[in-house]
Amino acid sequence: MLTFVLIISALALSGVMIQSLLVKRKSKVKIKVKDERVVEDTLDEEELYRFTVSNDSDQSVVLTAIRLFSEGGEVFDNKHHPGFKAPEREDGSVVDIDSKRIRDISHLLSENFLGTTVVQSGEEVTYSYYLDEPPDEIIITVRENEEMDIRLKVDFE
């Protein structure tokens, strides 16, 4: 009976050791920002900063926050919403808009980070913000066992 208990104990101990080694070898989070570009809303003279977050890890990643910075200060979406500017008549009244001349604004809508997002391995998510100054750094907070910040330099040129 003592031998049976010793064998079970040895198996349990070796199982715990193997599990702890596997946890330590768990792959690291690999997030990158790519395809940084500026889309101009020429009608309203605003700039939309668009970028893609790519998960290059072997596992899914939980994004809990995305913050943008310019020269060390945090910058926020200025809440611009592209619209249709109707031309005015000489007497100041608004001209009726011809439906054939209404511009497509779908590519000008901002897509801010709205909350916790799971990004699968190999998956990409695109975000965009109307900003008054170009960001030079993005901090992405991810949750693995605990929350951690990943600082990424960006170039919107």
Question: How would you describe the overall organization of this protein?
Answer:
By secondary structure, the protein is mainly beta. The protein is 15% helix and 37% strand. It is built from one helix and eight strands. Strands 3, 4, 5, 7 and 8 form a five-stranded antiparallel β-sheet that branches. A three-stranded antiparallel β-sheet has the order 1-2-6, with no helix packed on it. Strand 3 and strand 4 form a beta hairpin. The radius of gyration is 25 Å and the shape is elongated. The termini are far apart. 11% of the residues are buried.
**How much of the residues is beta strand, in percent?**
35-45%
> Rg from C-alpha positions?
25 Å
Mean of the pLDDT scores? 84
Oligomer: single chain
Write down the overall geometry.
elongated
Helix content: 10-25%
- Quantity of strands, as a count: 8
Classify the secondary structure makeup into a structural class.
mainly beta
Low-pLDDT ranges: none
| Number of separate helices | 1
Can you summarize the main beta sheet?
Answer: 5 strands, antiparallel
Provide the succession of SSEs: HEEEEEEEE
Features:
157 residues, five-stranded antiparallel β-sheet, 37% strand, elongated, mainly beta, 1 helix
Q: Can I get a quick summary?
A:
This protein is mainly beta.
Write the layout of secondary structure elements.
Layout: H1 2-24, E1 31-41, E2 46-55, E3 61-70, E4 73-75, E5 117-119, E6 124-130, E7 137-143, E8 147-153
